[in-house]
Automatic annotation (TrEMBL), chains A, B:
<dbReference type="InterPro" id="IPR005149">
    <property type="entry name" value="Tscrpt_reg_PadR_N"/>
</dbReference>
<dbReference type="Pfam" id="PF03551">
    <property type="entry name" value="PadR"/>
</dbReference>
<feature type="domain" description="Transcription regulator PadR N-terminal">
    <location>
        <begin position="58"/>
        <end position="133"/>
    </location>
</feature>
<dbReference type="InterPro" id="IPR036390">
    <property type="entry name" value="WH_DNA-bd_sf"/>
</dbReference>
<dbReference type="InterPro" id="IPR036388">
    <property type="entry name" value="WH-like_DNA-bd_sf"/>
</dbReference>
<protein>
    <submittedName>
        <fullName>PadR family transcriptional regulator</fullName>
    </submittedName>
</protein>
């Protein structure tokens, strides 16, 4: 047994079906610049569609109604969007500019109640089309990304049996804490009569975290059985 | 009901307990440079420890035995490491240099069988200590990251009931395909008598994907019930 994965190579056919990156044309983009490699998953997703997740997030907001830039900012802030999608308050203007160049949003000048001239952004027909296409694209296929725990598991042999049990005990505790938080979020969203799609932000994570919990328990069981057998040999 | 999340802000206390970024000192790093925001999760994780996941991956390899650079490359390739951790073949030398500067690896010159002088890398005591610390750190706390499906779910109102059912049907199909792949990987790893830690790469994902499957089914059930009620009103 090798402490790292396996000595022999996994047939590339298995691994590329699990992580189908190399078949995508944009994969080469990340290979050209090693510093971009960390972003490869984001890049791949970006390249698959003509709009990025940041652009999608803003188009989604503007699909509700035309907005002044400060309203967009306020919405990003109030919906806590930077916590559940790749957007930052500081990138909003840059993204709006991109959307304008791509003809996905229109910019008009309006006169406010206080007689000031202000820019107002609205989504175009082309923007609505691209937004819908991107939403459909995201929801049509499971996202597979890198989970750093795989790196720790591949190096598990450097820890003793006791240490593995101790750290995974902490891992279980952190899962339970997060489940409690997501339950609290669900309660909050229910109280505010959130749509079923938005409620899913808390519900889906609870399903995943419970599964992570079950995995840890089954893993520890298997691990301790194997360790017990080895120490008896 | 709002098409986006909820109109009122989620109390910051709930959201920061779920995504505890702002409390970390390095959070400010990502705020200073908007282009770095996409990397914020990676950054946060990077800042928490003194070594990055790429450095951890290479230290893990060298913890087995000292290696020539071409052996390291061969291992990264043969263990398909670029698919399950953030490493690319092109970044190996840069990372080795960093590890050398941090005194985590030693570089020695050796004479090979064919009388050539070659560099050989070995892990130092300090390197072993940091590797272990990082592995313990990763395994002590659940990783919470951004899932792009949340972005689609927040914009669900732009799709019709039929469209939601159709795309989530495809999503279910893609989950099933991945589960099949991971089962195949598990079989392969078992046949090659892989350690229990390495087997977990395929087993853990199966737990998560089955949970994702259950979530989709429960979500569709809830969504269709709500849509049915609305159309009857």
């Amino acid at each position: 047994m090798s402490p790292h994965f396996i000595r022999r190579k996994i047939p590339i056919t298995i691994i590329t079906r699990i992580f189908p990156f190399p078949s995508l044309p944009c994969y080469t983009v990340s290979m050209l610049n090693p510093t971009m490699y960390l972003n490869s998953i984001v890049l791949v997703q970006y390249c698959m569609s003509s709009i990025s997740n940041m652009e999608t997030a803003l188009l989604g907001l503007l699909s509700e109604r035309p907005m002044y830039p400060y309203e967009i900012e306020k919405n990003v802030w109030e919906h806590d969007m930077r916590y559940w999608t790749e957007i930052s308050l500081s990138s909003i203007y840059k993204v709006l500019e991109k959307l304008e160049k791509k003809l996905l949003v229109d910019v008009n000048l309006t006169v406010t109640d206080t007689n000031k001239v202000k820019k107002i952004y609205s989504i175009t027909e082309k923007g609505k089309k691209e937004l819908k296409e991107r939403i459909v694209e995201i929801m049509s296929e499971l996202e597979v990304s890198i989970h750093q725990i795989d790196l720790a598991l591949a190096n598990l042999s450097i820890l003793t049996t006791e240490e593995v049990n101790e750290v995974l005990g902490k891992y279980l505790k952190s899962i339970d804490e997060r489940i409690t938080c997501y339950k609290e979020l669900e309660k909050y969203l229910l109280e505010h009569e959130c749509a079923v799609g938005n409620l899913a932000l808390s519900k889906r994570r609870q399903f995943l975290m419970k599964a992570e919990r079950e995995w840890v328990i089954s893993f520890l069981d298997e691990f301790n059985t194997e360790s017990g057998e080895e120490s008896n040999e």
